[in-house]
From TrEMBL:
A GO molecular-function descriptor: isomerase activity
UniProt name for this protein: Sugar phosphate isomerase/epimerase
Annotated organism of origin: Mucilaginibacter defluvii
Superkingdom classification of source: Bacteria
Assigned keywords, A-Z: Isomerase
């Protein structure tokens, strides 16, 4: 029996940062490939004209998913409350875009800044965890006021020292203790951190509202060592009916390439990456 899912692709596969001027042509291409959804990575909300992007989405009959970017200036575990304020302001802008584009949740590793990977004393780690929980509870309130949820994404140990596994994400959601707190799992990070992808998906269970995939080397789905049967078993076990998005990155943007350590192209072209990845996923889902 086919998996009852839709397929999306991240704007990060093609461009960075996403901005209004690229929306029409990019959405046309993504829709022509056969994707149902586009995962819009909002690095700088000031570059995004929400109403114009909404028009472009409607023109190409695409649904949007919104994913955030969390650098040092957007860190809810920082010791400086002004950094929290900056992060809250950014999240609020992203939540407003979600509401405008009829997106049901805002996704990303919003608990801390990407790249914070340190050996901390247990007391300091506990303090940062509690600070993340407290601030994300406030984010959940902000989301719920707009009829939205948030999807918390675990990152691998080289990109975060706070939330690395599905188990960590479940614990954080439970500690936040708000109905808007949900989970996003990313296959690239799972391939590093999880002993079993199937078990990780089952552990997230009904809290899992979004899934990102690529190969183990962050390349085109179907070309590497990923255990796709484990994905299928896990998703079927929890009755997953959400979106599966291809997420990787263009190496053309030097800042982004350094952030995710992609030093060379992972496919013949980014278009071929997306098209062949979607062809594989559609066959796999049958």
């Amino acid at each position: 029996m086919p998996l009852p899912v839709k397929f999306g692709v991240s704007t990060w596969l093609f461009t960075s940062p996403f901005q209004t001027s690229s929306a029409t042509e990019l959405f046309r291409k993504i829709a022509s490939m056969g994707f149902n959804k586009v995962e819009i990575a909002v690095e700088d909300p000031e570059l995004v004209d929400g109403p114009l992007v909404k028009v472009a989405l409607a023109e190409h009959q695409l649904e949007a998913i919104v994913c955030g970017a969390f650098g040092p200036g957007r860190d809810l575990t920082h010791e400086d409350p002004e950094v929290h304020k900056n992060c809250f302001n950014y999240i609020e802008q992203c939540l407003d875009l979600c509401a405008l584009w009829d997106t049901k949740f805002f996704a990303g590793p919003m608990y801390s800044a990407v790249g914070k990977a340190r050996m901390l004393p247990p007391e300091q780690r506990k303090k940062e965890w509690q600070l993340a929980v407290k601030n994300l509870r406030q984010v959940c309130i902000m989301a719920a006021d707009r009829g939205l949820e948030i999807a918390i994404e675990p990152l691998n140990r080289f990109e975060s020292d706070l939330v690395n596994t599905a188990s960590d994400a479940v614990r954080m959601v439970n500690d936040i203790d708000h109905p808007a707190a949900k989970i996003l799992l990313d296959g690239f990070h799972m391939n590093i951190e999880e002993a079993s992808i199937e078990h990780a998906i089952k552990l997230a269970g009904d809290k899992l509202i979004h899934l990102q995939v690529a190969e183990n080397y962050r390349g085109t789905p179907g070309t590497g060592q990923v255990n796709w049967d484990a994905y299928r078993k896990g998703l079927k076990a929890i009755g997953y009916r959400g979106t599966i998005s291809i997420e990787s990155f263009t190496p053309d943007n030097k800042e982004l390439a350094q952030a995710v350590c992609i030093w060379h192209p992972l496919a013949e072209s980014q278009d071929k990456f997306a098209q062949e990845g979607l062809t594989f996923l559609k066959q796999w889902a049958q």
